[in-house]
Amino acid sequence: MTAQVLTYHMPAGVPGNVTRSQTSRIEPNNFDKNYPCLAYGIPVKIVSGLIRTLPSGAVAGDIYGMLVRPFPINSSFGAPAALGAGTPNVGGPCDILAAGYMTVTLARGTAVRGAAVGVRTTAGSHTLLDIEDTANVGAGDSDCVLLGATFMGPADANGLVEIYFKTR
Fold first, then answer.
1. 78 vs 117, which has greater pLDDT?
2. pTM, full prediction
């Protein structure tokens, strides 16, 4: 395993990590093996009791929760996954953040404490499920919807930012 030196400060977190577990509501669920989730810290929907990634064209009401990174983080192939590089198991159990604090990757825009968080729901010139500020939500760009979350502060140099999420 390669050592990592933190020269100035710790990173803001790892995408999908719950940051304040004592105030968060996390629910156990299972993935739908036919609709794999490719990353942690993304919004998901529930269909017939199983978790799926949001499809293109999803609306804010489709969002069930945020996919939580499990702990400890181990690879099924013996070597630990690189920090922030793990991928969810297809068809297995998963945890969903129903309400609480999580680290996500800000793909576009500027995170400001208390500002609403947007998510890209239609792929085009940008990637589906990218987390963004709300500059594109309701501004003639129907490709983004409100996530049901607020930023807890600015993003770090790697685009990692803490959000408070609550849809139900």
1. 117
2. 0.83
Query: 47-71 burial, b if ≥16 CB within 10 A, otherwise e?
Result: eeebbbbbeeebebebbbbbbbbbe
Per the domain annotation, does 9 fall within a domain? Answer: no
Count up the domains in the chain and report the number.
1
Here the CATH number for the domain that contains residue 67 is 2.40.300
For residues 131 and 148, give the distance between their C-alpha atoms in angstroms, rounded to a whole number: 12
Q: How far apart are the first and last CA of the chain?
A: 40
Task: Give the closest residue to 54 by CA, choosing from 116, 127, 4.
Answer: 127
> Mean pLDDT for the chain?
83
CA dihedral 77, 102, 148, 52 (to 10 degrees): 10
Residue 13 CB: number of other CB atoms within 10 A? 22
44-89 pLDDT, tens digit per residue, is: 999 999 999 988 888 889 999 999 988 654 444 444 455 555 677 7
